[in-house]
Q: What sequence folds into this?
């Protein structure tokens, strides 16, 4: 049984009948989230736009989404996720959790040179892809754990574990920004 | 009251840009194109006269034989069964259909006995 909201189901039905306004409403509902997810995962505006476009093209095509099998949100983010990971593989970035990326060479230097948001971006980009995905969906798209589990095809426990590891890594890497007093004491 | 985690506060400082209007245009165009193509595939009433259905040959032949038999039975039944209209209880026709009746050219009339008719 689908837990798709009734108004969303109606919009989708109308959009499939050719009602452009209904399609536009669905687009407005998911456009920013899908783009933000893809952008934070890939770091590329062009790729994020391509991913978002591809998601809605699949929706316009209409033949592949079955409302009985889950929420539209999980379907759209699932497509985005598939494309993002394909992009990461092509661009040579690992998608599995075992590949820990190297920490920024010198966080203190980064502090002097870049803004805080750039440091956050760098710290998140340095996370393994599955942890990065979990933190982006949870922190930025504000999705509940069960929705993230549906999108990623993992169980809630695995999502929690990824989030916990991601936060631990981020806390460590962003420590000089989070607790500047500690840095002073060290020097 | 729990204080917000400073990590969450810091993470929120990283903001995503807004997607471009060009992307919106492309998505809208994709939708229109997809729907246009879909309509072309299912033309509705306009395609009624050019619609095709596929029927297996054995089914078609069986249907043709059935139709031929029905037509043949109906036509033979109508020619072999004389109409009972106009016949009374004694079996004598008291009413005849005069359609196409023409009098004999010489005006002669002949009386035909009933026995001769029934023979």
A:
């Amino acid at each position: 049984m689908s837990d798709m909201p009734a108004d969303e189901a109606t919009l989708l039905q109308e959009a499939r009948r050719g009602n452009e306004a209904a399609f536009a409403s669905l687009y407005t509902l998911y456009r920013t989230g899908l783009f933000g997810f893809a952008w934070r995962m890939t770091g590329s505006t062009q790729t994020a736009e391509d991913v978002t476009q591809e998601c809605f093209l699949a929706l316009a095509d209409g033949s592949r989404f079955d409302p009985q099998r889950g929420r539209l949100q999980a379907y759209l983010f699932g497509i985005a996720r598939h494309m993002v990971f394909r992009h990461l593989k092509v661009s040579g970035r690992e998608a599995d959790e075992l590949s820990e990326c190297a920490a920024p060479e010198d966080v203190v230097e980064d502090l002097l040179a870049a803004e805080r948001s750039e440091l956050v971006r760098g710290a998140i980009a340095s996370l393994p892809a599955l942890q990065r995905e979990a933190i982006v969906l949870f922190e930025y798209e504000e999705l509940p754990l069960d929705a993230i589990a549906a999108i990623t095809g993992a169980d809630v426990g695995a999502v929690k574990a990824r989030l916990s590891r991601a936060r631990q890594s981020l806390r460590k890497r962003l420590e000089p920004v989070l607790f500047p007093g500690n840095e002073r004491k060290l020097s | 009251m729990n204080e917000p985690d400073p990590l969450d506060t810091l993470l929120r400082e990283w903001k995503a840009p807004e997607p471009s209007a060009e992307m919106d245009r492309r998505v809208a165009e994709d939708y229109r194109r997809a729907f246009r193509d879909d309509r072309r595939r299912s033309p509705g009433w306009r395609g009624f006269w050019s619609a095709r259905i596929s029927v297996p040959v054995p089914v078609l032949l069986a249907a043709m034989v059935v139709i031929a038999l029905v037509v043949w039975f109906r036509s033979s039944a109508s020619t072999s069964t004389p109409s009972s209209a106009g016949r009374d209880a004694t079996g004598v026709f008291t009413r005849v259909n005069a359609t196409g009746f023409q009098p004999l050219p010489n005006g002669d009339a002949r009386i035909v006995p009933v026995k001769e008719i029934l023979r």
In short: Chain B is about 45% helix and 0% strand. The two ends of chain B are 121 Å apart (CA to CA). Chain B touches chain A at residues 6-8, 10-20, 22-24, 26-28, 30-32, 34-35, 38-39 (CB under 8 Å). The mean pLDDT of chain B is 77.
